[in-house]
Amino acid sequence: MAKTPVLDRSGKKVSDRELPAELFEAPVNVPLMHQVVVAGMAAVRRGTHSTKTRAEVSGGGRKPWRQKGTGRARHGSIRSPIWTGGGIAHGPRPRDYSMRVNKKMKRVALRGALTDTLQSGKLAVIDELTFEEPRTKEAIEVLEALELRGRILLVLPEPEEVAERSFRNLPYVRITFSRSLSVYDLIAADRVLFTRAALDVLEGKEPVATPVRPKAQASEVSRSGGSEAPARGRAKEPEAADETPDARGES
């Protein structure tokens, strides 16, 4: 089983990570990878391009001049494809460019791309990638500490707003997620950076969810100076002992 070092944000080795053989020791089938990449790029094409034939352009309802006797070439319409402003012969028409590639082919191609990424030395793994707030400067420092150059593919376990906003302003960084990883992204990148959690998701393990404090509750705490206060517009729930008539001295 192949291993790769796991680095921290400063570029120091934290541990070694064992990589599953079914993902990173698979046969590299180049023709199959090419077929999957072409199919993926074709699926992006909308296919809405269209041109008008001589039957669809306006004008040309009558013969421009008589057939014989003028000394000029014979023509039946000024909207012929050889005329300026005429129709287009054999031009593009709306069509569907999608190509059928089954799931098994996609899985084999993806495993081959991951294997090629490891064998070519493009793979890098970071322990965690968390930011207190979106900072592109900190993102650049992380990439420099890991010595990543060229076109970088950052693979996250799931959408993370702070991390994405930290890297999205860098034109040479492309962000994707473990469940939407594509063969084209792996091949086009010069370096591929996985987080430890992204590898877990890729192997079929669910990441451990970190409890997040609700924003509304946090804002109320900050306004109250550190002590939790009831939300504005809501009355505090009374305690049973204090709200009885005897406890308030009421009759």
Please outline the helices and strands.
Blueprint: E1 3-7, E2 13-18, H1 21-24, H2 30-44, H3 103-119, E3 123-126, H4 136-145, E4 152-156, H5 161-167, E5 173-177, H6 183-188, E6 191-195, H7 196-202, H8 215-223, H9 245-248
Parallel strand pairs: 1-3, 3-6, 4-5, 4-6
Antiparallel strand pairs: 1-2
Helix pairs in contact: 2-3, 4-5
Overall form: elongated
The secondary-structure element order is EEHHHEHEHEHEHHH
The CATH class label of the domain at 3-28 and 104-202 is Alpha Beta
Question: Structural class of the helices, strands and pairings?
Answer: alpha/beta
Rg, please? Answer: 32 Å
Distance between the termini: 81 Å
Largest sheet: 6 strands, mixed
CATH homologous superfamily (4th level) name of the domain at 3-28 and 104-202: Ribosomal protein L4/L1
CATH topology of the domain at 3-28 and 104-202: Ribosomal Protein L4, Chain: A
Question: DSSP helix count?
Answer: 9
Number of strands: 6
Helix residue percentage = 25-40%
Describe this structure in words.
The structure is a single chain. By secondary structure, this protein is an alpha/beta fold. It has 9 helices and 6 strands. It has helices at 21-24, 30-44, 103-119, 136-145, 161-167, 183-188, 196-202, 215-223, 245-248, and strands at 3-7, 13-18, 123-126, 152-156, 173-177, 191-195. A hairpin with a 5-residue loop joins strand 1 and strand 2 (13-18). Helix 2 (30-44) packs across helix 3 and helix 4 (136-145) crosses helix 5 (161-167). Residues 216-222 and 226-251 have low confidence and may be disordered.
